[in-house]
Amino acid sequence: MNDLRHKRKAMIRLKKASRVLDQKALIGELKAAIKQEEEYIEKCQEYGASVNFIDAVPISFDDNLDVSAKTVNKEIFLNGKLFDKGDWVDLMRYVLHEAIHVLQQANGMVDGKTDKEDYLDDDNEIEAFQAQLSYMSKHEDPKEIQEYLENLLDHHDIKGKEREEKKEKLTEEI
């Protein structure tokens, strides 16, 4: 009986190790691919950074993340569900968005965490969302972009005239 438990535990450890290796490989692919994206290249130029700066940025998947992605102290965390889903465009748009936050942090433009109610008023968030939506406009169906935008505004409880103004502001780079 102990032998069977030992084998099960070993299999679980192997699956976890394999998942970590797969994640590292995917992160390497994302880092290589983002260097070819127009929005990323433009932001690097704007911030005076080499496109290769992303190679030094720690990126990892976190199964316990309560959001799709976030950046803390110039380190990018992606929700583990994004890895499981395996949608390249989703992964790339979040890496792009968060890479912009790393550039902002590296240039002293971030004062701390933005409150949820002020989130879409924050210039740094607007800049990252504009680049993200521009990227999405080249790789996704307009209906999907519209749905994403509606969900984002719903999540932040933005209604009425302010909602239309936010949509306009967030999509002005498209």
Number of strands: 3
| Biggest β-sheet: strands ordered side by side in the sheet | 1-3-2
Determine Rg (CA atoms, Å): 18 Å
Helix content: 55-70%
What portion of residues belong to β-strands? 5-15%
Strand count, sense and barrel status of the largest sheet are: 3 strands, mixed
**Mean residue pLDDT:** 89
Low-confidence stretches: none
C-alpha end-to-end distance: 61 Å
Shape: globular
Counting structural domains, the number is 1
Total DSSP helices:
7
Topology as H/E string? HHEEEHHHHH
Class by alpha and beta content = mainly alpha
Question: How would you summarize the topology of this molecule?
Answer:
Layout: H1 2-34, H2 38-47, E1 59-62, E2 69-72, E3 75-79, H3 80-85, H4 88-106, H5 123-139, H6 142-155, H7 160-170
Parallel strand pairs: 1-3
Antiparallel strand pairs: 2-3
Helix pairs in contact: 1-4, 2-4, 4-5
Describe the structure.
A hairpin with a 2-residue loop joins β2 and β3. This protein is 63% helix and 7% strand. With 174 residues, the protein is mainly α. It contains 7 helices and 3 strands. A 3-stranded mixed sheet has the order 1-3-2. The protein has one domain.
